[in-house]
Specification:
Layout (H helix, E strand, L loop, with lengths): L2 H19 L22 E6 L2 E8 L2 E8 L9 E6 L4 E8 L2 E4 L7 E11 L5 E9 L19 H28 L15
Antiparallel strand pairs: 1-2, 2-3, 3-6, 4-5, 4-7, 5-6, 7-8
């Protein structure tokens, strides 16, 4: 086999092998981007005022304030708590040990300033400024266009690219064979046809 034909054949084998090896993702390959997810945690804020830790949380239209001793985390019971925003105020009631709730304060999306005023037993009243940020609801996705051109899959592009590559190599082989014959030579030169 001539050297040029062997080189052309080797190039064709390498091209076909590389197109086949770059197939779709395998068991541990790239599987594309992960779908976007949203983790929702109740809007909350926390602060420390002297020996007391304050955690405020807004869930389902209820403002809950948790009071505990900072040193050991024990709930603070029997406190008197008032909460206020720029436009609203409410007195919270103790629903469980160290848990004070109200449904009289509502928050808008975005940043909300909150002031917690509390007194424990006969102690002096303390005021703690806090901020609760309420996440804005996700914006709806834009409607799809009336007509969208189909986007080919990765495998379709590989098969099409492999086909184009094979066709280009076949044309190159034909051109090379023609050049080797030279101009004016018949393609069947050297073969004698005997007609009877």
């Amino acid at each position: 086999m001539p050297k040029q034909t062997r080189t052309l054949l080797a190039a064709l084998i390498v091209a076909v092998a590389s197109a086949a090896a770059s197939g779709p993702a395998g068991a541990h390959g790239d599987h594309g981007a992960a779908p976007p997810g949203v983790v929702v945690i109740a809007p909350r804020t926390e602060a420390r005022s002297g020996p007391v830790e304050i955690v405020a949380e807004f869930t389902g239209g209820t403002l809950a304030v948790f009071l505990s001793r900072f040193a050991d985390g024990a709930p603070v019971t029997g406190a008197k708590i008032d909460a206020s925003t720029d436009l609203q105020s409410a007195t919270l009631t103790e629903s469980d040990a160290g848990v004070y709730v109200t449904k009289d304060i509502l928050f808008a999306d975005g940043r909300n300033d909150l002031s917690i005023n509390f007194s424990i037993g006969s102690g002096a009243a303390r005021t703690q400024a806090m901020t609760i940020t309420i996440a804005e609801p996700p914006h709806p996705a834009a409607p799809p266009p009336a007509f969208a051109w189909p986007v080919p899959s990765r495998r379709t592009v590989q098969i099409g690219g492999g086909t184009v590559l094979a066709a280009a190599l076949a044309v190159a082989a034909l051109m090379l064979a023609r050049r080797r014959r030279g101009p004016g030579r018949a393609p069947d030169e050297g073969i004698a046809l005997v007609a009877r």
